[in-house]
Structure formats: structure tokens, C-alpha cells
Amino acid sequence: MTPSPTVTPEDIVKGAASVARDAAEGRLSPANLEAQLEAELRAVVGTVVGEGDPLFDLQRDIARGVLAVGGVPTDELAEWLAVARHRAGESVTPPEAPSEVGSVPSGAHSPESGSAAPEPEVPAAPEVTTVLALVPELVAKAPAPTSVTGQAETGDGYDPLAGWRPGPRRR
Q1: Where in the sequence does UniProt note compositional bias of the Low complexity kind (predicted)?
Q2: Is the pLDDT reported for residue 6 higher than 50?
């Protein structure tokens, strides 16, 4: 096991002075911190490798959360479902084009006329309904966000680290 480096009081003072200097010079703004956080998160979890990656479960949970809040439009979900079916070897056929509409006869249509045939119902696209049916199941499987153990909330109930689970650094 690698011994952890010893932090001296001087190191803490230097670190605090560095933070104070950055804040005084405007380099420690919320916008800058959010930009740095986004860049770091993209570097750590932004590349999805797939099964076998230690972060894959986290990435899957993030994807479920995005689906739960409607972050992916249904037409895009239908496209991804078609891709998944293609990878699984299932037949992926494009939706059938509507049949050509003939000329509509003029005149009033009524149940008494008897000449008008009932219009066939157009079924919904199976891909969209299938994906939408999966959303409640995915939401149910997604873990509820929790606070990081050992971090205290502020007095107003705000926990800046709620839902954040630190992991090993990947570089």
C-alpha cells in the first residue's frame, strides 16, 4: 500500500492563501468553477467504453436520469432503439409509408349514405411506444440521489454535493 503524503500546517496555509489570491483576482468565480467541473466530468465519465469499464454503471445511471426527465426526444429514442435492434440482429424495417390517398368524392357523408367506408386506424409507431413503455421501468431502477457521506448540509437545506459520488481519478 502506498503511504499517503503528510500534509503540514504550512501546506494548508499555502493552499488557503492560493485560494484567497485566486478569489481576489477573479479566477475563482462560480462560472469558472462550473466550467472546470464540466471539463473534469467530461474527461472522467464523458467517454462511454461499455461493459467492463468501472464507470459504466454510473454512466448508465446518468443515462436513466436523463431519460427520466425527458432529456431525449422520442424520435431520437426511436432511432437508438432501431440501432439496438440492428445490433441484436433483429430486422429493422422503416415505418410503412401511408397509402396514396385517392380523390375524395364531394358531398356530405353521413351514416345513412352507406357509400363511405370506415377509415382504417393508423397504428402508432412501435418503436416510440416500446421505448416510452420502458421509461417508467428505467426510472424505477435509477437510484435516488443521496448526499455524500460525511458532508454536512448548510442550514438552508442545500447540499452542494448531493448525488455526487467520488470515484478513482482516471487520467
Answers
A1: 105-128
A2: yes
Contact status, residue 73 vs residue 83, Cβ threshold 8 Å = no
pTM: 0.41
Within a domain: 66: yes
My answer on whether 54 and 83 are in the same domain is: yes
Average pLDDT over residues 48-70: 90
Does residue 40 lie in a domain region? yes
Nearest to 85 by CA among 23, 127, 145: 127
Answer whether residue 96 is part of any domain: no
On whether both 36 and 82 belong to a single domain, the answer is: no
105-128 core/surface letters (b: 16 or more CB in 10 A; e: else): eeeeeeeeeeeeeeeeeeeeeebe
1/20 Cα distance (integer angstroms): 35
Residue 112: C-alpha distances to residues 105, 108, 139 (Å): 16, 10, 51
Distances (CA, A) of 37 to 18, 60, 149: 19, 20, 20
Task: With a cut of 60, say whether residue 152 has pLDDT above it.
Answer: no
Name the pLDDT band for 151 (thresholds 50, 70, 90).
very low
